[in-house]
């Protein structure tokens, strides 16, 4: 069974989590989604988990930790999500919104508070629930434990919603939900919401930028807009950094004025 790991831990701490998992489930296949989430950046972690989880096989357990509230009264949760095709995925982590966009993207989901201490390591650190709670619970679920055994179902979990871009006359208003390592700006404007055509011109902060199919469809150093592999509108610069060029950061609003290519 596949278990994925996502965190803002960097290189050192994930190893002990993997050790805990393998002692409980030696045959587990461990896959690192990323341990380079910006520190404490719940929204960035939620975006990466949301866009990655659906490509794993049914039955995968996703353990995700971006947890600035570790050791406080924030809850630990486990989620079972089911797609319309019947695929089931599990998400284990803190109750801070991190897991919710990924679970929603599958369809129906159930959330359980993790309270069954028999599943934890004997000594639980107040600063490393990833190792002492989330890793062992994920390993047990991967081995076949019924998710209801972790604790009671809850309905007042912490949500997180990236929202949707909306049209306002001849412009589109959205939000920057992620900036990738290349400096590409990912917005919450999706292909399913707006019908962009190759060659359309979008005015962003007074700069006219073409909508194209791929990064290499323009000259090096030129700006472009495109639908990224995740299904959201990106603003990019071929071999450059769009976020630096437009002086934008995650969470900023963005307004695009549409000019037809005709």
What's this, in brief?
It is built from five helices and 15 strands.
Give your account of this protein's structure.
The structure is a single chain. By secondary structure, this protein is of the alpha+beta class. The protein has two domains: 2-154, Rossmann fold (3-Layer(aba) Sandwich), CATH 3.40.50; 166-259, Bacterial fluorinating enzyme like (Elongation Factor Tu (Ef-tu), domain 3), CATH 2.40.30. It contains five helices and 15 strands. The strands form two sheets. Strands 8, 9, 10, 11, 12, 13, 14 and 15 form an eight-stranded antiparallel beta sheet that branches. A seven-stranded mixed beta sheet has the order 2-1-3-5-4-6-7, sandwiched between helices. A hairpin with a 4-residue loop joins strand 13 (223-227) and strand 14 (232-237). The longest helix has 14 residues, at 129-142.
Features:
elongated, 5 helices, 262 residues, 15 strands, seven-stranded mixed beta sheet, alpha+beta, Rossmann fold, Elongation Factor Tu (Ef-tu), domain 3, eight-stranded antiparallel beta sheet
Q: Give the ordered list of helices and strands.
A: EHEHEEEHEHEEEEEEEEHE
| Apparent shape | elongated
Number of domains: 2
Radius of gyration equals 20 Å
Structural class: alpha+beta
User: What do the pLDDT scores average to?
Assistant: 94
N-to-C span:
52 Å
In percent, how helical is the residue content? 10-25%
List low-pLDDT spans: none
Main β sheet profile: 8 strands, antiparallel
Number of helices: 5
Q: Based on the structure given, which CATH architecture of the largest domain is correct?
A: 3-Layer(aba) Sandwich
Question: Strand portion, in percent?
Answer: 25-35%
